[in-house]
Every structure is written in structure tokens, then in C-alpha cells.
Design a protein that fits this description.
Layout: H1 2-13, H2 22-38, E1 42-48, E2 51-57, E3 65-70, E4 84-86, E5 89-91, H3 95-113, E6 121-126, H4 137-142, E7 149-152, E8 160-164, E9 166-175, E10 179-180, H5 190-205, E11 216-224, E12 230-231, E13 234-243, H6 249-259, E14 264-271, E15 274-275, H7 281-294, E16 300-303, H8 309-314, E17 319-321, E18 326-327, E19 335-337, H9 338-353
Parallel strand pairs: 3-6, 3-7, 7-17, 8-16
Antiparallel strand pairs: 1-2, 2-6, 4-5, 5-19, 8-15, 9-13, 9-14, 10-12, 11-13, 18-19
Helix pairs in contact: 1-3, 3-9, 7-9
Length: 355
């Protein structure tokens, strides 16, 4: 079983499925579709804004469980698209995030399709998780796909991530008055105004602490001025705020406006936070299956980053992140632990037996 997963993962990794490479993404989607169809699964294709996705099922029954994976990846050197096995590790772009886990899901679905009694399980495969997910998981759910519980196979070290922060992106703007740089007293420098105002915003959130479960703010893009000898009359700072499930974006914006009324605040985007009741039927069944395979309680995990699980949550479907451990995600020499990949497969296979 593990050898089949590794071989399929190698095939998936060789596709440079970057957002800027639609040809590779289409080729990978076609490869996945053909592989699942050849395995006897019923495959329904979806497409939105050029992003190809699919839902595969072993039967026509409405799914209770949806397993989710994505085939798109982030930028990497050309050699990273050649998978390399080093004992219990598989290296390559997407090895951890998340083509090896996707390969395991595909092998599992092929096994389920061969069974006489086919469980009510669906596999959702999407192609834009790394750039927002709206045209993949978001589109499929907007089109009416439903299930009772979803598992997104992002790396989690085989812990059940039932919480994830929301992502609020804002643009903060400071105004000024333009003038000649040789006579700064005649103008009002918007950069200096931003420097004076932003510390009041920063104090609302405080310095980030490693792994602390708190709301954070990250200044990421700043722009001002159009000539070196001209005083800028506007300075725009874009920030990325990761907030806890209990907080609402409207409240965060209001706090910023109160702390720094001299700044204009514009909402660029918002991805909601995720929370799934750990005692709900889906997480409980997954927890029991994991404990049976691992020999210990897997425990629950809080994720700082967003995932496609949020689209299920926004449609009232409990969803968690659960996948094998990996490292150097989005970096050079990305890797996944193949021992956990095997356990991941066995856990989900056991979960499917209980449906």
C-alpha cells in the first residue's frame, strides 16, 4: 500500500502545479481524473475561473464524509519537482503540502471502490488552495455539494486541528500634503504620519509570541510617494491579521479606528476562522479511529494558518485538518514522514469502515 502511495505521489509531484502555470494544473487535474475513473470511481468535474476540481465517489449515495485534498503548490526550483525518497522521508515540492496525502486519499478511494459494500465517502480534489480556494472548494460548495463531516488532509502531525484562525487583510492609509522635498516644512509627510499612527495599532495586538494562541498583526506591504524629491501626500500600509474564532472582523476594524482615528481603514478580504466541536460525531469518530491505529489519543490542535476547511465551516459543515507530519513546507527540501503517511491511510480506512 505504501509503495503505491509513494509511486503516485512521485507522479503528482512532477507536475509544477503553480498558479502561474495553468497548463501544468490542467494536466495534473486530467491525470487525477483519469486515475480515479480507471479505479472505478464516479467523478464529477468542476471548473471556475480556469481552476479544475472534482468530486469522486464510490457510489451514488450522498456522502457522510468528505476527504479533501489539493494539487496546487507554491513556487519552487525546478529540481524540487522531482521526488526523492530518503528512507522514511519523501522530499519534493508538495510532498507535505499536500500531494503525498492526496496520493494516499486516491489509493484509499480506489480500495473503497472495489468493496461490495461501498461507504458514503467522497473525495474532493481542488486546484487553488494556495491562492485562496474560492474557485476550488469554495465553488464546489457554492454549487450545492454537501456532506456531514469533512477532513482536509493538510499536515498536522496526525493531530486533529479543529480550530484555525481567521485571516483579515486591511489597508491602512495616512494622509499628508505634498510639496518639494527641499522644503519639508511646507508639506505634511504621509510616511511620517503613518510612522506616528501605526504604533497605536500595533499596541492593540502586542508583540507576537511563538505559538501563542492570540490574534496577531503583520505589516506586509507599504507604498508611498511617486518621486524622491516630492513629499508624499499618502502612505498605504497593508496588514495581515490572524484572529481567533471568537473574534469578529467588524470588532477588530472598530478597535483600530478608535485607536488611530487619523488612519483610514479599508477591508481588502476576510477568510473566516474555523471551529469544529471536538465532541461532535465527526471529530469523535476520527479521534477513535486514530486512537485505535496509533495506540494513543491523537489530541486536538489549533492552526495559525487558514485552509480550505473554512469553506465547509461557512456552509455549516463540521470540518477539521488532519494529515501526516512534514517539514520545510513552502521551502527548499520539503518533506513528508512516510511512516505517518501509512498511519494516516490506516486511520482513514478505519474511519470509512465505521460509516
Amino acid at each position: 500500500m505504501l509503495d503505491r502511495i509513494v509511486q503516485l505521489a512521485r507522479e503528482l509531484i512532477r507536475f509544477p502545479t503553480l498558479a502561474k502555470n495553468p497548463e501544468a494544473r490542467r494536466a495534473c487535474a486530467d491525470f487525477i481524473t483519469q486515475s480515479l475513473t480507471d479505479a472505478g470511481l464516479q467523478v464529477r468535474p468542476y471548473e471556475s475561473a480556469g481552476v479544475r476540481s472534482l468530486v469522486a465517489t464510490p457510489s451514488a449515495a450522498a456522502p457522510w464524509l468528505c476527504l479533501h485534498g489539493h494539487y496546487d503548490v507554491v513556487e519552487a526550483k525546478a529540481e524540487e519537482f522531482i521526488a526523492r525518497r530518503e528512507k522514511d522521508l519523501l522530499r519534493g515540492r508538495g510532498a507535505a503540502d499536500m500531494k503525498t496525502a492526496l496520493a494516499a486519499l486516491m489509493v484509499l478511494m480506489a480500495e473503497l471502490a472495489r468493496r461490495e459494500k461501498k461507504p458514503a465517502v467522497a473525495l474532493m480534489v481542488t486546484g487553488d488552495e494556495e491562492v485562496g480556494g474560492e474557485h476550488g472548494a469554495g465553488h464546489i460548495l457554492d454549487q450545492g455539494f454537501r456532506c456531514e463531516f469533512a477532513v482536509s488532509a493538510e499536515p498536522s502531525g496526525l493531530m486533529i486541528a479543529n480550530q484555525a484562525k481567521g485571516a483579515l487583510r486591511l489597508e491602512l492609509s495616512a494622509k499628508g500634503k505634498s510639496g518639494h522635498a527641499a522644503r519639508p516644512w511646507e508639506g505634511d509627510n504621509a510616511i511620517l504620519n503613518m510612522m506616528a499612527a501605526f504604533p497605536q495599532v500595533w499596541e492593540l495586538f502586542g508583540d507576537p509570541e511563538p505559538e501563542a494562541w492570540k490574534t496577531t498583526i503583520t505589516p506586509s506591504i507599504i507604498s508611498a510617494g511617486d518621486a524622491i524629491n516630492r513629499i508624499p501626500d499618502r502612505c498605504a500600509l497593508r496588514v495581515d491579521i490572524r484572529h481567533l474564532p471568537a473574534e469578529f472582523p467588524e470588532e477588530i476594524v472598530a478597535r483600530i479606528q478608535q485607536a488611530a482615528p487619523e488612519l483610514e481603514v479599508r477591508v481588502l478580504s476576510h477568510s473566516p476562522a474555523c471551529y469544529a466541536d471536538p465532541y461532535g460525531p465527526g471529530p469523535e469518530r476520527l479521534r477513535d479511529a486514530a486512537a485505535a491505529v496509533l495506540g494513543h489519543d491523537p489530541g486536538f490542535l489549533k492552526k495559525h494558518a487558514a485552509s480550505d476547511a473554512r469553506f465547509f465551516i461557512s456552509h455549516g459543515i463540521p470540518a477539521v485538518v488532519f494529515g501526516p507530519a512534514g517539514g520545510n513546507v513552502h521551502g527548499d527540501q520539503e518533506w513528508v514522514d512516510l511512516r505517518e503517511v501509512e498511519e494516516f491511510y490506516l486511520i482513514l480506512e478505519r474511519l470509512c469502515r465505521e460509516i
